[in-house]
């Protein structure tokens, strides 16, 4: 359900249920999390790239999955879909957000519901011109999950976040980029090459500094100015002891490309 390809230091993960628009089942979500875990552990991987097989990135939770689909039989008690969140989506969103390496999403088609929020939970989001994002939850009586309520207002501000979440309308990739919700839009035919090049570029950068940059930014959103400055100072102090700082400065002074090693 997840195709894993190693391209040098980039681990490519492809959601692979194209016949169901890569709708998310418990099995697929479990495999995705395992693959991320393995990439986090594997010291040779310095960036992860996530994309979808076929014409969609992901249609979100598989609504036909018996763990989720409400029974139409009269008198059958509703299931607790919260279990799906507790056991699959919450750990997945946390894993994405705390990866020791940068994660790029290449959004190759529609990204709906939790599929959209998995993409938005990545560090850089590149989309093909034909891609789109749909906060589909409200249409089936739910709220944005898989981090949507946290991510959306931070990405596009409260007003747009509410509009997207309340209406659940399709947002084209170009409009998502104009809102600042994603990093960039490229022609569909160039998506995979562009996203891979971006992941390879990140893979050649000081990995630990990149992960700490994400952490510092996320922390700063919760902090007042002075504590944020102190947090920066503490993280910077640690990075100052790391090999990559020594190497980065040495390479600059020697006018040669750096070879970063820390992870
Ligand atoms: C699908 C799905 C799908 C199953 C297309 N499931 N089959 C978390 C935890 C617990 C509970 C619930 O939710 C969550 C988080 C969530 O993600 S909730 C949101 C779930 N996702 C949606 O509500 C989106 C539903 N899908 C759509 O709105 C459309 O299919 C989109 C806009 C994604 C694509 O539209 P089209 O390009 O027109 O394709 P289509 O609708 O014809 O779909 C193709 C096939 O895929 C079709 O099956 P069929 O047998 O007729 O070919 C769809 O039924 C199936 N499919 N999404 N989520």
From TrEMBL:
Keyword Isomerase in annotation: yes
Pfam families given in the database record: ECH_1
Keywords, ordered alphabetically: Isomerase
An MF annotation (GO) of this entry: isomerase activity
Keyword Methyltransferase: no
Family according to the record: Belongs to the enoyl-CoA hydratase/isomerase family.
Protein name: 2-(1,2-epoxy-1,2-dihydrophenyl)acetyl-CoA isomerase
Organism for this UniProt entry: Roseateles saccharophilus (Pseudomonas saccharophila)
């Amino acid at each position: 359900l997840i195709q894993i390809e190693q391209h040098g230091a980039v681990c490519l993960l492809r959601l692979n249920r194209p016949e169901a628009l890569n709708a998310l089942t418990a099995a697929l979500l479990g495999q995705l999390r395992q693959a991320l875990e393995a990439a986090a552990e594997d010291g040779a991987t310095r960036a992860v790239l996530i994309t979808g097989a076929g014409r969609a990135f992901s249609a979100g939770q598989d609504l036909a999955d018996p763990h989720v689909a409400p029974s139409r039989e009269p008198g059958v008690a509703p299931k607790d879909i919260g279990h799906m969140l507790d056991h699959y989506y919450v750990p997945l969103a946390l894993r994405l957000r705390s990866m020791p390496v940068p994660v790029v999403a290449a959004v190759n088609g529609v990204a709906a519901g939790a599929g959209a929020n998995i993409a938005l939970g990545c560090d850089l989001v590149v989309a093909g011109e034909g891609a789109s994002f749909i906060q589909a939850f409200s249409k089936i009586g739910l709220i944005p999950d898989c981090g949507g309520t946290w991510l959306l207002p931070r990405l596009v501000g409260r007003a747009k976040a509410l509009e997207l979440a309340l209406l659940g309308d399709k947002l084209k990739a170009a409009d998502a980029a104009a809102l600042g919700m994603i990093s960039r839009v490229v022609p569909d035919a160039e998506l995979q090459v562009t996203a891979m090049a971006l992941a390879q570029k990140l893979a050649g950068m000081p990995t630990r500094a990149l992960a700490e940059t994400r952490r510092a930014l996320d922390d700063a959103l919760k902090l007042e100015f002075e504590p944020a400055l102190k947090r920066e100072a503490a993280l910077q102090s640690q990075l100052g002891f790391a090999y990559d700082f020594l190497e980065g400065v040495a390479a600059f002074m020697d006018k040669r490309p750096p070879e970063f090693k820390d992870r």
